[in-house]
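Handoff note, outgoing to incoming analyst
You'll be picking up this chain. Sequence as last confirmed:
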Amino acid sequence: MANKKILIVDDNEDITDMIQSMLESSPYSCMTANTGQQCLDLAKQQNFDLILLDMAMPEMSGIDVLTKLKENNLAQNSKIVLVTASPMYTEMDLKKIRDDYGAIERVKKPFTDTELLAVIAKYIG
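Most recent structure output, in case you need it:
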């Protein structure tokens, strides 16, 4: 399981640092990106088993990132979990995002370590 790689994408460095710290004692290898462009650049360089993607980022939203990942076949082997504090995504919106981009689940902020680890384990073991 140590070879399972996770990319944590959030414009708030405190959040990426917190998630990375939480996962340090897990069997996963983690990288962080604090912009959509950093996410795309890292996805071009290597494959990730799971991408935790913040939906509300400046300059490039989560939807913009999902679009670019799909257009460039950068995440075809990655599971994508949406991370958002926004209540603006209805279940219908989420279904469309899942269908259009392959995102598999949403984790609502704030979340506990246990909640996030359960979602990660569910999809990449």
